[in-house]
Structure formats: C-alpha cells, structure tokens
Amino acid sequence: MSQRNPAHRFFVILQDRSSAVKKVAFYTLGCKLNFSETSTLARLMEQHGYERVEFNQQPDIFIINTCSVTDNADKKCRKIVREAQKINPDGYVAILGCYAQLKPKEISEIPGVDAVLGASEKFRLHELMPTFVKVPNGEPAQVFNSPIEEAIEYHASYSLNDRTRTFLKVQDGCDYPCAYCTIPLARGKSRSDTVANVVKAAQEIAERGVKEIVLTGVNIGDFGLINGQRQETFFDLVRALDDVEGIERFRISSIEPNLLTDEIIQFVAQSKRFVPHFHIPLQSGSNRVLGLMRRRYKRELYSDRVQKIKELMPHACIGVDVIVGHPGETDAEFKETYLFLNELPISYLHVFTYSERPNTTALGIKPIVPGHVRAERSKMLHILSDKKRRAFYDEQIGETATVLFEEDVQEGLMQGFTENYVRVVAKYDPLLINETLSVRLIGVNAEGLMEVEEPEAILEKH
Questions:
Q1: What is the CA 239 to chain-centroid distance, rounded?
Q2: Which pTM does this prediction carry?
Q3: Which H helix or E strand runs over 234?
Q4: What radius of gyration, in Å, describes the C-alpha atoms of the chain?
Q5: What pLDDT does 161 receive?
Q6: Does residue 148 carry a pLDDT above 80?
Q7: Does 2 score more than 70 pLDDT?
Q8: In angstroms, rounded to a whole number, what is the distance separating the alpha carbons of residues 396 and 411?
Q9: Per-residue model confidence (pLDDT) at position 88
Q10: Cα(20)–Cα(11) distance, rounded to whole angstroms?
Q11: How do 171-172 and 436-444 pair as beta strands?
Q12: 259 Cα distance to chain centroid
C-alpha cells in the first residue's frame, strides 16, 4: 500500500471515526457582516456533505469566525477555543475572519487551534478541509493566509435561519484609512456586488418567507466599486431593492455620514420598504479629534444629516457610534463630544473604548489617554445612551407602529422591533411570530422594553 501524506491521513480519520457524515459547528464573533458570511459558509459545508450542529453538540469540527475591532475580541476568540476543547478534545478547530487575517502566526500558536484561514481563503473552507491536519499538542497550526492585497474577489453572503431578520452582505472591504482601524488591513479594498445580484439574492430570501433584510457591509455607502471601478451607487441599490416583492422591510445597518446623501434620506422618507432607522458613525464630536482620526467629515455635516432625517421623518430612530479615549482626546474635547451628542435628537449610542491596534497610525498620536480615563468617559456616554433611548421610547408611547415579532421566545414572552427600531415585548402567541403587525405602544417596562397590546387585541385588528 502506498503511503498517504499526513493531510490525507487526517481526512480519512475524519471520515472513519463514527460515520460518513461529519458534524461541524460555527461560532461567530463581531458584526452583522460576519453573521452573514458564517451562515453562507455553513450552507456551503452542508452542500458538501457536512452536518451543521450547535456548538455544544459534540461536533467533529469547530469553525470560529473572528472579529478584531478591539483587543477584547481577540480574548474572546481564545476563550471560544478553550470551550471547544472542553466540548470535544479531539475536535478540529479552524479560525477565520479578521483576527485570522491580521495575526495568523499568533493564532497558530494558540493551544487547540489546528488551522488559520485568511481573508482570501475563508470562502475556500470546504475545498481546503481535506488538506487540514490535526496538529499534535505544542505544535503550531496550519496557516492558509495570503497578503491582504490578494483579497480582491467579492463573495456574496446572507444569513438564513439564524434570526427572523436576514443580514444581506452587499459590500466588503474599505478604502478609508481611519487612524484607529484595522479593518482595511483585515478585509482589503472596497468592493461590491452588483445591483442585479443583490436584487436576485433579496428575491431568493423573500421566497424563504423572510420579512426583513438588513443590508450590511464594511462601508455600504461606498457600494458600487467593481474591479476598482465605480459602476453603480448605493442609491441605485436602494431604489432597486424598494421594488422587491415579498420583503416588507429593508434596514440600512450603518452608513458613513459623508456618504448618506440627501437623495438617500429623501428616498427612505417616502419608501415602500426602507424603514426610518439610520445608524451613522460619529466617533467624536470634536473637529480636531475627527481630524486626528482621519475621518472624512466635520461635526457640522453630521449635525446636518441628523437634522435632515428628523425634518423628513420625525419618528426616525438614529443610532450613533462613538469612540472614547482616542489618543490626543483631551478632557475638553470629550466634553465637547458629550455636549454635542446631548443636544442632537438621536436615539441611542454604541460606545467603543479606544483600544490600541497594531499597524494603525493612532499609535503614533500623543498624548495617550490613561485607561481609567477611557473607562470613565465610556461610563458617561453609556449613561447618556440610556437617557437618549428612554426619551426616544417615551416619545413613541401612544403611537401605532408595525412590529415584526421574532422567533426568540423566553419565559412566555416574545419580542420584536418596530419599523423605527423600538424593541417591544408581548405575551407569546405562535400566530404572531414572523408577522409584521400594527400595534399600539402603551408603555415602557422595568427592563426598558416597550409594551404593546395583548396578542388577542392585535389579532382582533388583523
């Protein structure tokens, strides 16, 4: 008998160990974009003969899709690897995603990791699987990682069966070199699908009974770059998707303020399907700090975008990303950010504490903000966010809104979101799950969730 190479030997072991069908589990860290890609990779694996199972169901193979926006995301990855080893010490562990592209050598030395796949390799997971080798303890994992400059292909993705809503990827990569950010290093240049392909994907999703699609990407406002050339625009995409039958709601996940044009805002205001919910990164309310961050706008433009939205859609929900403790941010500039946000008619904040990331220009900016100061600033903005969210919810009491009730039911209660992103809670009724229904908002409970009419009253109206 001829001798097989180690990769083939491991593949045979996988096939022989219990049955022909191997069980694979996925764990996703990070953003909506990662969830869309994980779901697509899982479907590819199923198409190639693998059975997808939950993480705790003794899978043969663990796939961990990582984020690396902050140092905390890296720590989470290590923790998930340890949990995988507890569940199945003989299980095969592969790491992919942003962290895997940025730090392949570091990950390859994590005990329990067997393979690391970079940005160009992750969508070849099913092809590479037969070459994977279970590494002995103490030895580094196999690394499949090309330079980020080679990540030029666009891979369409969308999530299914994970949530009531579907995350539909429309764009990848980023050409904005923000001082604090590693995403361009992890995902490469900005590139997009075509309008026609996205519309086709949305139609496929509609056929599966999904009612809401969230458009996602790294910088979706930059949609339209194909092979380095601008061929279409995000506005072209929005107009085309508004005509897709079967989808009741489209939600824009996040869009840069300098790419959120008047025509997009005006279109959403009269749209059949796009909901009045915008998530617009700010990062700082100080023009000097925005300059240090290499952002492409000033606070005046941001304020103008918010005012335009509220002028046309007074009930619109506006979420904001903010970074605290960026190098060079003084106490006075943080206060400027705080007051700016306090005065804006926004609905909630996503607060990020600055974290040093290798190979970013922010590392060269002085002075460095001490950790305890970053933590205090973060706490202040979290309190402000709670205040803003409660004020926004209070404004909705007594209004009639449409709610899409989700499948996640806990302790006899179901939850859902209104079109303007108010989270509601109601007594569970199976007839209401995955249905978009008109309800009256009656009050905010102790957990900060909006209460609505009883299910019987909702059904009576429909």
A1: 23
A2: 0.90
A3: helix 234-241
A4: 23
A5: 72
A6: yes
A7: no
A8: 26
A9: 94
A10: 11
A11: unpaired
A12: 19
Which residues are 94's β-sheet partners?
63, 115
Cβ contact 119:149 at 8 Å = no
Identify the band that residue 459 occupies on the pLDDT scale cut at 50, 70 and 90: low
Sheet containing strand 166-169, edge to edge, reads 166-169, 212-216, 249-252
**Distance between CA 98 and CA 68 in Å, rounded?**
6
Instruction: Summarize pLDDT for 250-309 with one digit per residue, the tens.
Output: 999 999 999 999 999 999 999 999 999 999 999 999 999 999 999 999 999 999 999 999
Please list the residues that pair with 158 across neighbouring strands: 168
**3-state SS assignment for residue 165:** coil
Q: Residues 14, 60: contact at Cβ < 8 Å? A: yes
Question: What is the token pair recorded at 173?
Answer: 């990569």
Report pLDDT for 423. 96
Residue-by-residue DSSP string for 353-394: E----TT-GGGG-SSPPPHHHHHHHHHHHHHHHHHHHHHHHH
**Residue-level length of the chain:** 462
DSSP string, 308-361: HHHHH-TT-EEEEEEEES-TT--HHHHHHHHHHHHHS---EEEEEE----TT-G
Instruction: Report whether pLDDT(218) > 60.
Output: yes
pLDDT at 165: 86
Cβ neighbours, 10 Å, residue 139: 11
Percent share of the chain, pLDDT over 70: 93
State how far the Cα of 371 lies from the Cα of 354, in Å rounded to an integer: 9
Listed in sequence order, the residues at least 6 apart from 427 whose beta carbon sits closer than 8 Å to its beta carbon are 412, 413, 414, 454, 455
Cite the DSSP H helix spans in 280-327: 287-293, 299-312
Contact at 8 Å (CB) between 55 and 62? yes
Q: According to the model, what pLDDT value does residue 131 have?
A: 82
Structure tokens at 271: 């749209």
Q: What is the pLDDT of residue 461?
A: 66
Number of CB atoms found within 10 A of residue 436's CB: 16
